[in-house]
Every structure is written in structure tokens, then in C-alpha cells.
Amino acid sequence: MKAVLKFISLMFVVTVLAGLLVACNSDEGASGDGGLSVGIVLPTRDEPRWVQDEQRFKDALEDSEYTTEILFSQGSSANEKENVDTLISKGIDVLIIAPHDGAAAGSAVEAAKSEGITVISYDRLITETDAVDYYVTFDSIAVGAAQGQYLIDNSEGSNVPLYLYAGASSDNNAFLFFEGAWSVLQPKIADGTFVIANSSEAEALQDKGDLSRDEMSRILSQVTTNWDPNEAINKAQTHLTAVGGDMKGDVAVLAPNDGTARAIADVFASDNEVSSYVVTGQDAEMASIQYIIDGKQSMTVFKDVRTLVEDAMGMAITILDGGTPETTGTYDNGSVEVKAKQTDVIVVEQSNVKSELIDSGYYDADEFSGLE
Fold first, then answer.
1. Which of 3, 114, 302, 347 has the most CB atoms less than 10 A away?
2. So what's the architecture of 140-303+348-367 in CATH?
């Protein structure tokens, strides 16, 4: 009798184990080849831009046979490395990564590359490594140039106080944005249209059209916001406190993105000695579109993330299907020339909010008030 019970118990264990194996095999089959197809690492959930990207990435693969997982690094290179390692362990074939810190991300993508994974740098370029296969981006220099040109086109007279702000020094895009803006602003600084109000380093270089990386670094060290609205508020308050009335009145403000633009705009609007301000932005965040409608932010550079996501996922699917992705240029990342696909950008101001963002289906009209 004991032998029979022992046999029944053994058969029960075998049956349970078999069921578990079937379940595991079923899950793996759902992902195509026993693992994830595409791993995506985004820098933070704390900016609306990246949360929007998350959903659009999910939508892009909704009807595909391929699978994906999206992880956020929350502004930490250590988390970013851990995220990449996690995705490698799950068997990804393609890694799409928007790095928190372009240089620090090198070790993470080198680990992926050593496993035969194709690496696509998304929106921000990973630098100082040959482990990057492709780069999907907006033309970042064109973004900065559009911001600078807007300030030129919407400022009147001469000796207009110009306040310069930039993104994080750890982000290669911050340099590209600033390079583009400086390329159009510098001649107008040199001829007296603008007077730099908040950077002694920029003032010292105001007669130089082409800046080296080191020269831009010195400027950015004084005017970086680190993409943080709170830091932007603190810097703007410090700068306005430090200057005299001759650096107020009607002013021009180069703000690097929408989050910092709204923060800086609020500070300038609260200063009684600032008569008016023209302030730039980028990303077409919903809150900034409302600011533009309300006249509190002047413009934003619209980077249609739908197109960027489509380009990145299209590239990934081409790779998974065994093809070679289409590219439109290259970027020097300090180690290699990375093949890139670029997406155009659009300047949005009060007059074309409806045509560019509502009529195109990017936003719904009922998400805003005061829209004509």
C-alpha cells in the first residue's frame, strides 16, 4: 500500500512539473523565439515627453508578431545599465535606448553588442563607443537654430537682453541644440542686436561663430538647467536678481525645452521690471501648448514623436526581418560615424497650433482652453 501511495505521489509531482513546463513554453512561444524581440530603455518617467514615447512604442508593435519591453532609468546611469542587463537576459535581438548620459551609456551598450544585439541610439546619441549601430533622431542642430531664429525674428531694436539656458551637460543633444542656436544668434550678438545677460563665458566668446566642445562646455556650466524645471527656476531667479534694470525691460530667452521654458517664463513674468519676454521651447508638451495659447510661452519646436517612434520601430523590424535599415546621414559620436535616420522639426506658435497639432491628430482640441 505504501508503495502504491509513493507511486501516486511521484506521478502527481511529474504531472505538475509537466504542466509548468507547458505553461513556460506557451509564454515563450508568444514572444516569437523564446525571448523578447526588442528592448527599449527610456531615461525617465518624470518628463511627459518620455511617457508619450512609451505609449507610442507600445502602439507601434501592437499588431506585430514581435514583442517588446520598455524600462525607465529614472535619471540614473546605474539603473540604465541594470535595465539593459535585464533585457539582455531576456533574449532581445534589438536594443533601442535613449541614454540618460550619452558617454556613461557606453558600457551598457557594449554589453549588449557583445551578445550580438543590434543597438539603436534613440533621440540622444550614445558617445565614445563603437557599440552603436544606428541613431534615430531629430535634427538637433536644426532645433537649436529654429529657436535662435525665432528670437531674432521676434525681438525689436538693439541691445536686447539675451538670457541663455541649456540642457544637461551629460546629454549630447544639449550641445547640439546650443550649437544650432549659437550659429544664428552669434552674428546678432556681435552686431549689438542682443546683449548677453547671464553668462560671462558666452560674453567672452561672443565674437566667435564656431565654438569648440570645450568652449560650449564652459558656457553650459553656467547656464545648464539639467533639464530640471526646478533648477531652471533657481537659475532664472538668480540671474534676474544679479542684473540691473538695463538687463530687463523687453528680453529674449533661449530655453532648451518646454519644461524649463514654462519654469523660466513664470519667473520672468513675475519680475515687475521685465516688460515682455520672448521664450523658446521644444517638444510640444501639452502644458506648453496651453502656455502658448495663453501667451505665456512664445513657441515650441514640434518634434513629431510619432514619426520618430515609427522610424525606430521600422528600423528594428527591418533588422529582425534580416534587412538593412534605411539611413539619411551619419553622426560622429567621438569613436565612430554612426549611421542615422533624421526626422524634420516644425516651429509651433500661437498662430499655427491648430493646423500643426490639432488638425494633424497629435492632440485633441478639447484638451485645451481658449483655442480658436
1. 302
2. 3-Layer(aba) Sandwich (3.40)
Classify 97 as helix, strand or coil.
strand
The sign of the CA dihedral 178, 164, 252, 124 is positive
Residue range 83-108, pLDDT digits in tens: 999 999 999 999 999 999 999 999 99
Helix or strand holding residue 302 (H, E): strand 299-302
30-132+305-343 and 140-303+348-367 in the same fold: yes
Q: In terms of Cα–Cα distance, which of 77, 71, 272 is closest to 171?
A: 77
Place of cell 541691445: 159
Closest CA to 372 of 361, 363, 355, 360: 355
- Top-level class of domain 30-132+305-343: alpha beta
Q: How many CA atoms lie within 13 A of 244 on its CB side?
A: 1
d(CA 310, CA 213): 32
Give the Cα separation of 201 and 220 in Å (integer): 9
Q: How many CB atoms lie within 10 A of CB 37?
A: 22
Write out the DSSP string of 112-149. HHHTT-EEEEESS---S-S---EEEEE-HHHHHHHHHH
What are 322-350's pLDDT values in tens digits? 999 999 999 999 999 999 999 889 999 99
Which one-letter amino acid corresponds to residue 275? S
